[in-house]
Amino acid sequence: MMTISLEAGKNLLARLNKEQIAAVTQGFGPSLIIAGAGSGKTTVLIRRIVFLLSELNQDPDSILAVTFTNKAAAEMKQRIKVILGEDITRSLAIGTFHSICARLLRQEIDSYEAEEGWRWSRNFAIYDETDSVNVLKAQITALNLDEKVFPAKQIKHAISAIKNDGFMPGTYANNAKTHRETRLAQIYASYQGALASNNALDFDDLILIVNELMSTNPNLLHRWYQRFRNILVDEFQDTNKAQYDLIRMLAVGSPLKKNPIEDGRERSLMVVGDVDQSIYSWRKADFRIILGFQNDFSDCRLIKLEENYRSTATILEVANSIIANNTERLEKVLRCNRSEGAKGQVYEASDEIDEAYYVAEEIKRLKARGRSLSDIVILYRTNAQSRAIEEILVREHIPYTLVGGTRFYERQEIKDVLAYLKLIYNEKDSQAFLRIINVPRRGIGKVALERLHEFAAQEEISLIEACIKAPGIAGLGAKAQQGLKDFGLRFRHWQALAQANVVSELLAAVLKETRYLELLEEEARATKDELTMGRVENIQELLAVAKEFEAIADEANLESFLTRISLVSDLDSFQEGQSAITLMTLHSAKGLEFPIVFLMGLEEGLFPHIRSLDSPPALEEERRLMYVGVTRAADLLYMTLARRRMFQGRFNNGAPGFSSNYSVPSRFLKEISADLIIGFYPDAKPEQTYSDSRRIPNSAERPRANGVSAVPLGQSNAGKAYRMSENGAMRMSGMTGGANQKGDRQFDAQAYPPLKVGDIVQHNKFGLGQVVQVIGEKNKELYNVEFKETGKRLLDPKFARLTKIS
DNA sequence: CACTTGTGGATTTTT
DNA sequence: TCCACAAGTG
Q: Using CA atoms, how far apart are residues A312 and A323, in angstroms rounded to an integer?
């Protein structure tokens, strides 16, 4: 390893400023790096790792580097590999909290037993949002609770929050105060028990269980404490309590707070973050952790990277003038390294179609002026906004890559096929079982499944065993009996195959023997259905993914394949440099940089989002999101808004929180000094629009996406078609047919008695509640009602039947 | 059991 | 608008 230092050492400090050098070359101990947007923190992190290895003589496997996305981890590894070579890079632990914890649990979970006696084994499944919500639904029903009062999705979010705060079911139950908290504790416990019986963990468990292991098992903690002597955490402002507890335990070797980092050996802990870019509080990230870090580690070094190398002076000033309106900040000034640059360009469109046309026209002009399409990104607050711009981009023949939205691994056909692999890997995974037991059709319906469950419970055998013995189940049709038995035996055969074959071969065998792909191909040929054709392609793509995985993975087995795909996001497969513009949400854009940025939908109620308007901290988070968006831009910044926006099939009126047909420009626009932007005249009506003479015709006359035919009318509600593009990112290539624009719909102003704050009301689902807020005016108001059972809810009196009491 | 039709209800961000 | 799920039909 000594050979590294000369070559690497020389370049290690090249082109770094004083603070960056200080961060890279500091000695051991704890440090906090406050890194403003565009201040080169990734470079610092990478060089710091190289410095630890080559100059401070640290072992590669003493390094733990936590990134926010898998993509960031992959990039970091790639750049280190170039400097230090493959062997060393391979032994570095670089990844997200979730992937690192998953890997650790594959080793350690056998020694974990919950208070309640639940256990998991190393082949645990990782449940995604859908799986978790389904389990939760079943539990809520089993507890005889009303799904209307306890909506599974909302409960999932609540449990997630509890887990991210580090509470196990028992602890939470003991601390439950309100009636609802007691109920929640009950649901939490039965949910967790159900996960255990499926040998499954959800995303949050990955971190929570590692925490439990570490804090209850001193030997185990000590082992990992000995190993990870150099810890680096990126995007530290978006760390939650559970994650921070874990880091602190690993750093100090004890679950108790305030221990010094000392064990007679050299250790370091470097966290890097920017309070102004904290945008994940809804995932229980807490930027106050970064503020408290110096207290927890009193000998902490503080280094501020305040030199911005990315953006023009104007763009930085725009960002600064916006973020200056926040109160909860850590003092920091971004110094600019570039010239003034062009002013921010604002366009007030008449509606979202006009807005999209403006962006498309501008992109064409930029291209004509020699800009590459890959230099351009379009950012928006909500995924739903992508639809309007996509349609125009397709129409104008501007290629684009969509990041987010419906992800590859969430598509039906992919989930189906993967469910086979998951079940083969973890036989207890009932979600996987339910998904595929009748896919393809085996003549097994609801009744047959109930019988099967009863039988399995009665005989105390697994569902798979029960399948094999299905001919012995009374009251089951011959078709179902045979179907179940065949499936059970076939399944055992696949399990045997899995022992001796690589993933792609196993996958191919499953596809062949189930005839899944064959049936799909037949259907595609027969119907010429775009959607089905896309599905066939997606499955072929999955096979390619498996093969690629085998080629590059360190351990190319089923276990690491499944772990990996459970934790990847759409963003992770996004590659820069393609000849296409990029579309994504502001959240996805964190950590990325583009020469040209379009921020769309700058309207009150959309951005800042309606759900944030009545909460000052939430509003500050929206502002940070705006700050993140602006600071993605290096050269040019565009901001657009639509005076009228089609929302759920109608214009703003009637949509929650909008009190008029016309939207109000985002307050963030008003916070920008007027001399930094052009095109924004808060009171003027837009004069010329791009779409006046070419409003989108209805779908029948619309141009076809990429030359393929649109979805036939009858299929319009069957879903969306997606196709893979060359780089593995998704592109929407089908259009939902049958849509026609009816224009503005009239409301008959219904006669309902207006309510005011303080009124007590009765709702037939939610029970008694009190109006705490009235939003909007006249016949369009909405009521924020606090219910005894369910808490606050925003209700539209046009839909919700509210009866005034008293 | 599989498929069609109808209705009600919902709307942020994602590892 | 559009999606999920319930109810109804072959």
A: 17
- pLDDT at position A386: 87
Check if residue A648 sits with its Cβ under 7 angstroms from strand C.
yes
3-state SS assignment for residue A295: helix
Rounded distance between C-alpha atoms, residue A625 and residue A326, angstroms: 12
What is the DSSP secondary-structure string of A91-130? TSEEEEHHHHHHHHHHHHGGG-B-TT--B--TT-EEE-HH
Nucleotide B10: closest residue by CA–C1':
A648
d(CA A239, CA A278): 9
Asked if the Cβ of residue A649 lies within 7 A of any atom of strand C, the reply is yes
pLDDT of A299-331, one tens digit each? 899 999 999 999 999 999 999 999 999 988 877
- pLDDT tens column, A40-94: 999 999 999 999 999 999 999 999 999 999 889 989 999 999 999 999 999 999 9
> What amino acid positions of A are annotated as catalytic residues?
41-42, 234-235, 277, 632
User: Tokens at residue A231, please?
Assistant: 């810890």
Q: What positions of strand C are covered by protein, i.e. any atom < 7 Å from a CB?
A: 1-3
Give, as one character, the DSSP assignment of residue A642.
E
pLDDT tens profile A644-657: 887 766 666 444 44
Residue A732 CB: number of other CB atoms within 10 A? 22
The residues pairing with A761 across neighbouring beta strands, listed in sequence order, are A769, A804
Q: Rounded to an integer, what distance in angstroms lies between the CA atom of residue A764 and that of residue A1?
A: 71
- Widest CA span of chain A, in angstroms? 83
Q: Let me know if A648 is exposed, middle or buried by CB neighbors in 10 A (0-12, 13-18, 19+).
A: exposed
Whether the CB of A10 is less than 7 Å away from nucleic strand C comes out as no
Mean pLDDT of A613-618: 88
Mean of all residue pLDDT scores within chain A: 82
Cα A552 off chain centre by = 25
